[in-house]
Specification:
By secondary structure, the protein is of the alpha/beta class. It is 43% helix and 9% strand.
């Protein structure tokens, strides 16, 4: 993100920040004994193969393509193959960086079972997906798992909402959505969970970070545990496909 706002930081620093954030998140997940889906670039996995291999023992590993800042169609397959080689598990899910649009025939051809690159809402300057389904559906033989938005108004329950809305408001919207849709698909970035105040990015992207955001996530996990169970995207889709 700093690169998008004109701040030059090295690839090494970017990777270290991601690594430290992932270590922090994995500790939180282990503490609560829950699993989740971790979308990673193949480039990151090449730099930290042991970390990815260990995480794959507990969590689902999905593709975030090969590089976050560039994309070629062939990256769909090459990232999947490299992540499978490093993790030792099958990679069945895709999430495009910045929720970029991707063609489902290309996703199917690369061997993915599902794509989770849709935020079914309107974000000025980013995307307008108000015409797309809010919940799991199938397009050209590929399952599509949108990230969660509230019923009716389609308020996005993504990372920016989590750190900028009052916690009680976010929690109530998340629970309402879970009860309405029977599932909740939230997403965060590892780098949010360490101190990123020094970077020249908009204040709303770092208003809460580090320990404060870790505490908020811990609370959210405790609250959502009362409403359901945590499973991976892959597990949820396979269970729904059997219905």
């Amino acid at each position: 993100m700093p690169l998008e706002y004109g701040e030059i930081i090295s690839e090494e620093e970017q990777l270290i920040v991601g690594h430290n954030g992932t270590e922090c998140l994995s500790s939180i997940l282990a503490q609560h004994k829950i699993n989740c889906t971790l979308f990673t670039t193949a480039n990151y996995a090449l730099h930290y193969p042991q970390q990815i291999h260990e995480l794959a023992k507990q969590h689902e590993i999905g593709s975030h393509t090969f590089y976050h800042s560039s994309f070629r169609d062939e990256d769909l397959l090459s990232s999947k193959l490299k992540l499978e080689e490093i993790s030792g598990v099958t990679v069945s899910g895709l999430r495009m960086p910045r929720m970029r649009n991707v063609e489902m025939p290309d996703v199917k051809k690369a061997g993915y079972m599902y794509d989770s690159s849709i935020n079914p809402t309107f974000l000025p300057g980013r995307y307008n997906n108000l015409h797309l389904p809010r919940t799991l559906y199938k397009e050209k033989d590929v399952f599509r798992l949108p990230t969660s938005v509230t019923p009716h108004l389609r308020i996005p329950l993504f990372w920016l909402a989590f750190k900028n809305l009052p916690y009680y408001v976010f929690k109530q919207m998340a629970i309402q959505t879970l009860r309405n849709d029977s599932y909740l698909c939230l997403y965060f970035h590892p780098w949010e969970f360490i101190d990123i105040h020094k970077y020249k990015i908009p204040g709303y992207t770092k208003r809460l970070c580090g320990v404060a955001l870790q505490q908020r996530l811990n609370q959210l996990i405790r609250d959502l545990k009362k409403e359901g169970q945590f499973i991976t995207s892959q597990t949820y889709i396979k269970e729904k496909a059997l219905l």
